[in-house]
Amino acid sequence: MLVPSDKLTKKSPSSDGFLERFQEIGHLAEAVAEEHCPNARVEPALILKNKNVTLSYGPYGSAFDGMLEHRSGRFHVYANLDRLKTPESGRARFTLAHELGHYFIDDHRRALQSGQVFRHPSKCDYESRNPAEQEADHFASHLLMPTTRFVRKAKRYVPGLDAILALKDTFGTSITSTAIRYTKLELAPCTLVKWDPDGLDWKWFSPSTYAAGYRRIIESQAKVPPDSATGMALAGKPPPPKGYFQAGTSAHAWFPGAWSGSSRDVLLIEQAIPLGEFGVLTLLYPEARRY
Ligand SMILES: [Zn+2]
C-alpha cells in the first residue's frame, strides 16, 4: 500500500471513496492523454489549445505556480515563470497538466463555471495538502506519465535514480513527479523521502515496501548522518557528475522498527539528489532489490 505522510494528507488511503476517486481521476487523465497525444510525448499546452483554453506565461510573483480562471464563459490559464523558470521545464509542464486537471475533473470545473470560485490558484508538484490540489496533481501525473508507456520505458533502465532521471527526460516531467510515479508503480521496492529546510516534507512507500512493514522512517534531519548521501545533499555539497549522491546504508539507520542486526535490518542503497530551492529527494531501496 502506498501512503503519503500525515503531513501530506490526513485522509487514509483506505477511507471511503478515496481510492476509487483517485482511480477514476487517473483513468480520466490517461483517456485524455490517449485522445490528444496517442503516439508522442503528452503536450499539455496542445491539449489546452484543443479545448480552447487560452494560456499566458508571465512573472506573477510567488503566490502560485499556475492558475485557472473562468470569465465570461471562457477558461484561461496563467503560468508563473517566477516559479516555473521556463515554459519547457518539467515543473511548468506539470503545472499546465495540473490546471488541465481542474478543467477536466467535473466538480472542479463546475465550481468555476457556477461562480462559486472565480479563479483557482495552484501550487503544484505535490507541494499542497489541499485535497483538490492533490487530485489535480494526481491527474497531472497520469496525464504526463500514462501507466503503460511509463512502465514499458522504466523496464529498460537500472532501478533507482538513474531510471528516474532517464524517465524524467523521456516524459518531460520534474524529478519529484517522476520519482513519485516510479514509487507508486512499484518499479523498484523503494521509499521516497522529500526534505525541506525544516525537516521531512513528505514520504512515499512503494506497495511492497509498505507490505513488508517498513512504514515509519526518521523524520528529523538531525538523525541523518552528515556523511551519508542525504547528509551531503542537505549540506549543499556539489553532487558527483551524475547529479546525485549514492551510498550503502542499512534499514536500522532509517526505519525505527528495523532493529540493528534483526532480519529486517537489510542492506539498502541510498541515493539523494538536490532539488535546489525545493530541497532534497532521498530514494532508498534494498540492495537485493526485494524485501
Ligand atoms: Zn490547483
What characteristics describe this protein?
291 residues, alpha+beta, Arc Repressor Mutant, subunit A, 2 domains, five-stranded antiparallel β-sheet, four-stranded mixed β-sheet, 9 strands, disordered N terminus, binds zinc ion
Q: What does this protein look like?
A:
The protein folds into two domains: 18-144, Arc Repressor Mutant, subunit A (Orthogonal Bundle), CATH 1.10.10; 188-286. The chain starts with 17 loop residues before the first helix and ends in a 5-residue tail after the last strand. It has a five-stranded antiparallel beta sheet. A four-stranded mixed beta sheet has the order 1-3-2-4. Mean pLDDT is 90; it is low at 1-13. It is built from eleven helices and nine strands. It has helices spanning 18-36, 44-50, 81-84, 90-104, 106-113, 131-144, 147-154, 161-171, 175-184, 207-211, 229-234; strands at 54-58, 66-71, 74-80, 119-122, 191-196, 199-205, 245-250, 267-274, 280-286. Helices cover 37% and strands 19% of the residues. Helix 1 (18-36) packs parallel to helix 6. With 291 residues, it is α+β, with helices and mostly antiparallel strands. A hairpin with a 2-residue loop joins strand 5 (191-196) and strand 6 (199-205). The site of zinc ion (ZN) has 6 residues, from helix 4, strand 4 and helix 6. Zinc ion is lined by residues 98, 102, 120, 122, 133, 136.
